[in-house]
Structures are given as structure tokens and as C-alpha cells.
Design brief:
With 182 residues, the chain is of the alpha/beta class. 32% of the residues lie in helices and 23% in strands. The protein has one domain (1-174): UDP N-Acetylglucosamine Acyltransferase, domain 1 (3 Solenoid), CATH 2.160.10.10. It catalyses: L-serine + acetyl-CoA = O-acetyl-L-serine + CoA.
Length: 182
């Protein structure tokens, strides 16, 4: 759990541009988004712990904490979802995340929804190095590849291949612009 939180902290600092030492760095960890991330990691830890009596005690602590955090922050990150190291929520709230698995270095903005479509029992699967801009929605049984950007307010209802970006409503797949070497 703590190893994941350290990676989450590094990702959070790199995506918010607060790599400098000092007060701004400290304040980035006294935020609603960091609280929601910590509660999610605690929920995963509670579900994965070995002895059943300890698991029960931890889950009894987790569920009220989850609902209080969800109410205070407007961020709901379901403990069912397996999120790799380097998870960061940028923004202020309105985030709902329920996926089967999410890879490493996953960053989301405000107003992002990742989940299933009503009546569907399958959840999205998201790869590594995915950035979801504010307002984007990923719904249904979709697979998002590695190194993908989901642009703001896009609605993703189909699979997105590696090294691309999704734009629009409904989302269209575009090639990511290659960096020009000088």
C-alpha cells in the first residue's frame, strides 16, 4: 500500500508541476484528491489482506471512511478496481472510477467517469500511461491501450488502440502528434 502511495505521490507532483520543495509541495498533499487516493489505496489493502478477521476489521473501517470521503470530495474510486502505481487525480471532484483493471501512471481530471453501462456486467480495462482529460467518459466493455490520451469531454464507447488519442463525442481515434527532434 505504501509503495503504491509513494508512486502516486510522484505522479501527482509530476502532473501538477509541483516538483519544487516547500509549502506548495506540502499543500498538494492536503487536498481532497489526495484524500480520495489514500482512501482508495486503504480499501485495496483491506481487500487484499490475508487473515479473515483482520480483513473484516479493516473493511469495517474502510466503508464508512469511503462514504464520508465520497461525500466530502465528490470523488468515488471503487476499491473493486485494481489501479497500478502512479495514480493521480487532478482537479476538484466529480470523478467516478470503476474499472476492471487500470495500469500504471494513470491520471484523470475533474468530471471524469469510468464505468459500465446500465445492465452490463463488464467493466473497462485501461492500460499503462493513460491520461484522461476533464469531463471525459469511458463507458462499457471497452479496452483502452497503453500511452493513450482521452481528450476533454470525449465519450468513449469503443476500444482505443495503443499510442493514440480519443477525441469527441462519440470519440474518434486520432494518431498522437510525434515530438519533433531538433
Amino acid at each position: 500500500m505504501f509503495e503504491n502511495l509513494k508512486a502516486d505521490a510522484r505522479q501527482r507532483l509530476s502532473t501538477t508541476g509541483q516538483n519544487d520543495e516547500g509549502v506548495s509541495r506540502l499543500l498538494s498533499f492536503v487536498s481532497r484528491t489526495w484524500l480520495a487516493t489514500c482512501v482508495y489505496r486503504f480499501g485495496r489493502f483491506a481487500g487484499d489482506v490475508g487473515p479473515k478477521p483482520l480483513k473484516l476489521v479493516l473493511k469495517v473501517l474502510y466503508y464508512p471512511l469511503f462514504f464520508i470521503t465520497q461525500g466530502l470530495t465528490g470523488i468515488s474510486i471503487q476499491a473493486h478496481c485494481r489501479i497500478g502505481k502512479g495514480f493521480a487525480v487532478n482537479g476538484t471532484g466529480g470523478v467516478f472510477i470503476l474499472a476492471e483493471t487500470i495500469g500504471e501512471n494513470f491520471t484523470v481530471g475533474s468530471g471524469v467517469t469510468v464505468g459500465n453501462v446500465r445492465g452490463s456486467k463488464t467493466l473497462p480495462v485501461i492500460g499503462d500511461n493513460v491520461y484522461i482529460e476533464p469531463g471525459a467518459k469511458i463507458l462499457g466493455s471497452v479496452t483502452i491501450g497503453n500511452n493513450v490520451i482521452i481528450r476533454g469531454n470525449s465519450l468513449v464507447l469503443t476500444d482505443i488502440p495503443d499510442d493514440t488519442m480519443a477525441v469527441g463525442n462519440p470519440a474518434r481515434i486520432k494518431k498522437k502528434a510525434q515530438a519533433v527532434e531538433s
